[in-house]
Amino acid sequence: MSYTCLECARQGRDCCREAHAKFLTLRDAVRIAGFLREPVNTFAVYDFLKDKDREEYIYINRHQNYYYDLALRDERLLQIRQKSDGSCIFQEPTGPCRIYPARPLICRTYPFWLSSGGEIIFDGCSSDCPIVCDVTGNDGPEDIAKLSDRSGVARACALERVGYSRGDMKKFLDQMMVEIEDYRENIDAFIAENRVDVPASASALCLAAR
Ligand code: SF4
Fold first, then answer.
1. Which of 21, 73, 95, 149 suits a disulfide with 79, CB 3.0-4.6 Å?
2. Is residue 96 part of a domain?
3. Side-chain-facing half-sphere of 29: CA atoms under 13 Å
């Protein structure tokens, strides 16, 4: 986590505590397994999107592509196991990330995403991010219009507070697009090879109705 993310964690306002699915690319999973020296299936699970994911504007309204699209196939994503309260298993009780040097790409890029034109924008779920709320005045999922930032001033301010340059963030997001394609092509083989748990209980997602 950047300094600012640690500040959020100390205040109990960080995204690691939110009960969203913490998405893993295949390369994320391999890197974390190497860092921990544990098999992938000790921390990763191929599970359903969470209720909280389905609440989010960017998923429900689909105004642009997002990694949740990977769940359209069977409603599932490769993700980090959760604690009983929905928070990430890698978050220490005091806030910091236990796997910080090897953390997933989504943890490096949130609260940013790429527009369909390839420009850095705020992730549509970022009403959970105190930094975004501060710089945009956005304070809830229904306020997504406030994430519009044509001048880029709010984005620049948020990037500075998260601790990345625009170039660094673009590099991470471009890498995410590459790893999403890799995921799309190889997820089935990866799950089989790594014996990743695939929980049986189904949630009542209404993906086709969107
Ligand atoms: S892997 Fe680390 S940064 Fe990512 S959600 Fe978990 S605790 Fe937070």
1. 21
2. yes
3. 30
* Bigger pLDDT: 36 vs 75: 36
Give yes or no for a contact between 59 and 66, defined as CB atoms under 8 angstroms apart: yes
Query: Is the whole-model pTM more than 0.90?
Result: no
Mutate to test the pocket of ligand 1, among 4, 17, 22, 36 (most ligand atoms within 8 A of CB): 22
12 Cα: distance to centroid of ligand 1 (angstroms): 14
Ligand 1, atom 4, lies closest to the CA of 107
Phi and psi at 129, nearest 5°, equal -95, 115
What pLDDT is attached to residue 137? 80
For residue 145, tell me if it sits in a domain.
yes
Q: Which domain holds residue 54?
A: 3-192
Structurally, how many domains does the chain consist of?
1
